[in-house]
Amino acid sequence: MARAATTSDAFNAVAEPRRRAILNYLAMQERPVGEIVDSLGLEQPSVSKHLRVLLEVGLVSVRRDGRRMLYRTNAEAIRPLHEWTETFERFWRHQLSRVKERAEGKSNPPKDSGPNFIPRRKNDFDSNKN
Amino acid sequence: MARAATTSDAFNAVAEPRRRAILNYLAMQERPVGEIVDSLGLEQPSVSKHLRVLLEVGLVSVRRDGRRMLYRTNAEAIRPLHEWTETFERFWRHQLSRVKERAEGKSNPPKDSGPNFIPRRKNDFDSNKN
DNA sequence: TTGACATATTCCTATATAGGAATGTATTGT
DNA sequence: ACAATACATTCCTATATAGGAATATGTCAA
């Protein structure tokens, strides 16, 4: 009766901007927690918690190196998201051409897109602090 | 101090499986609410609420047709997700080849991927009832 | 063993749902 | 005007965070 757990699946896990930032950071190479903390400017407990979520859904893997824990992004786990979004690719291509036609002036003003359109935010995905 | 609103951005909005199902359903063509209710087997108020969220983040658009409201997916709004996931494509390609090498038996057992690996669910994204 | 270093976990709290039930609102046909 | 149709909104509640603070756990060096 509430929102699904962040650990439900990759979709829920990556809904949090800091977790996406962490995934970006760990994509190139494995890193210890401390470096994530320093580089992204987050609190250490916060990073540990986010990593736990990412680990539970398989978005990262870990191995111990002495007293440090080296995390790395498991890109494979992001694939389902990529594939889901991919099914819409052909549609935004079509919509683009339609918009283009309209820009070239093909009469009727779009009495479309209803009551309150309210497109909230822009493209501020990724990163963010704290 | 809690989870970000579902209306924060597309990432949060599509974290809910039923909303993804609705987006899939409305991708091909616009549809009245009633058809979504019947086709996906959800409660009408539930569908209206989900549509409101999708509308607020710009993932769908509406127009009135008599007493019906015709919704349609705005694929363009899914593009940021596609682009974010796309940045990981090259990585899962690399990882795949690494896994392949290992399968062909290149010695050392993967003392990798830490304490409790716990990859929870499989690929049951999309759809779902209620 | 002890202390320092690196992470993880626990506790507490404000907040935002998602579902169910009930009700409100807009629009059309007669 | 009125009933019926099609949606939207409100109310209520159990649940799952995310952040901050404090503390616990694990590992290495001397």
Textual characterization of the structure:
2 copies of one chain form a homodimer. Chain A is mainly alpha-helical. In chain A, strands 1-3-2 form a 3-stranded antiparallel sheet. Chain A is elongated and about 60 Å long. The first copy, chain A, starts with 9 loop residues before the first helix and ends in a 27-residue tail after the last helix. The C terminus of chain A is likely disordered. The interface between A and B is large, with 61 and 61 residues. Chain A binds a DNA duplex (30 and 30 nucleotides) through helix 4.
Question: Secondary-structure blueprint of this entry?
Answer:
The structure is a homodimer of 130-residue chains.
Chain A: H1 10-13, H2 17-25, E1 31-32, H3 33-40, H4 44-56, E2 60-65, E3 68-73, H5 79-86, H6 89-103
Antiparallel strand pairs in A: 1-3, 2-3
Chain A binds a DNA duplex (30 and 30 nucleotides) through residues 1-6, 16, 18, 32-34, 43-52, 64, 66-69, 130.
Q: What's this model, at a glance?
A:
By secondary structure, chain A is mostly helical. Chain A is 44% helix and 11% strand.
* Major sheet details of chain A: 3 strands, antiparallel
How large is the count of helical segments of chain A? 6
Total number of beta strands of chain A = 3
Segments of chain A where pLDDT lies below 50 for 5+ residues? 105-130
The percentage helix of chain A is 40-55%
Give the percentage of residues in beta strands of chain A: 5-15%
| Gross morphology of chain A | elongated
Helix/strand-derived category of chain A reads mainly alpha
**What would the average pLDDT of chain A be, to the nearest integer?**
83
Strand arrangement across the biggest beta sheet of chain A: 1-3-2
Q: Could you tell me the radius of gyration of chain A in angstroms?
A: 20 Å
Q: Give the largest chain-chain interface (CB within 8 Å).
A: A-B, 61 and 61 residues
N→C terminal distance of chain A: 29 Å
